[in-house]
Design goal:
Shape: globular
Largest sheet: none
Low-confidence stretches: none
Order of helices and strands: HHHHHHHHHHH
Length: about 300
């Protein structure tokens, strides 16, 4: 210390040390909040654990199991055993290998559908909510028409009207869920457009489209991002349902819905494993996304 209680500059901690300590404190605070949230929301923790397991299975699993299309007529309908954990199907294909490979396809499709639906729906929702008037009226009436159809039925109609391909399945199911994102983002945009930062952006000379997409849209995506987790689960279930009905993804592709559809008839003759295990994969995957989405939704309210 020097003079009248003033610290000697040489005794002050380096500025970099102070900044680093602040960053460490903030990181610890965020970690504590995350751990506290997970402890108070056990379903979120379960869902997150299941999702991590499925993502790991989708990324690494296909390299650790056999060929999902490899047939073995001599080993058809083998029950679950040490050699075939989930048994084999009517062609002697390993059900475990097919289920693991299907995880990559189903999760990829679900995420792609949620991303496409959120991008298109949020863009339209911001336009509707920010500009209002006749634009809003037209968009919302068209949205109401689409919402009159259940998502699965609308996706079934679109896929049936198009050629059966993976791209068409993604676009059809995404189109079925676009209206949900339109409503969510529009509602938030109606709130955001009345805030002061929007008025400031207008006064600064920004064009309406720039204000809508540069300022309003980023602040209107919160509900849509949370709902995207739920939509991913719905998308996985919808794609599997379409495949079960032989619409969209077709055999012999390793896909959970395809496998359930192929094995449904085997239950009558006692080969329950051909449909039970892929069906269980669908249930667990959808549960994971819904547990996460439900708790995130509750945390925002």
């Amino acid at each position: 210390m020097t003079g009248e209680g003033i610290a000697d500059p040489g005794e002050l901690p380096p500025a970099r040390f102070v900044v680093d300590r602040v960053h460490v404190t903030e990181e610890k605070s965020r970690t504590r909040r995350a751990l506290s949230f997970m402890r108070s929301n056990p379903l979120f923790s379960i869902g997150l654990g299941l999702l991590i397991a499925f993502v790991g299975m989708a990324i690494i699993g296909p390299f650790l199991v056999g060929d999902p299309l490899l047939t073995n007529p001599a080993g058809m309908f083998s029950p679950p055993s040490a050699d075939h954990w989930f048994g084999t199907d009517e062609y002697g294909r390993d059900v475990f290998a097919r289920s693991v490979n299907a995880a990559r396809l189903d999760l990829s499709i679900g995420l792609a559908i949620a991303l496409v639906a959120m991008t298109i729906g949020s863009t339209i929702g911001v336009v509707s909510g920010y500009f209002g008037g006749r634009t809003d009226e037209i968009i919302m009436r068209l949205t109401d028409i689409l919402l009159a159809f259940p998502g699965f039925v609308l996706a079934l109609i679109i896929v049936a009207a198009l050629a059966e391909s993976l791209l068409n399945v993604v676009m059809a199911v995404a189109a079925a869920y676009v209206p949900y994102f339109i409503r969510l983002t529009r509602a938030q945009a109606l709130v955001e457009r009345e805030k002061e930062y929007v008025d400031a952006a207008r006064l600064a000379g920004n064009r309406p489209l720039r204000v809508a997409f540069r300022h309003v849209m980023p602040n209107s995506l919160g509900p849509a991002l949370v709902s995207a987790t739920l939509v991913t689960g719905w998308a996985v279930l919808t794609v599997a349902g379409l495949a079960f009905l032989s619409v969209g993804i077709q055999p012999p592709t390793a896909e959970w819905g395809v496998m359930v559809g192929e094995g449904a008839g085997d239950i009558i003759t006692g080969e329950w494993w051909t449909s039970l295990f892929p069906g269980g994969m669908i249930v667990l995957a959808v549960m994971a996304f819904h547990f996460i989405g439900d708790d995130l939704t509750e945390s925002r309210t």
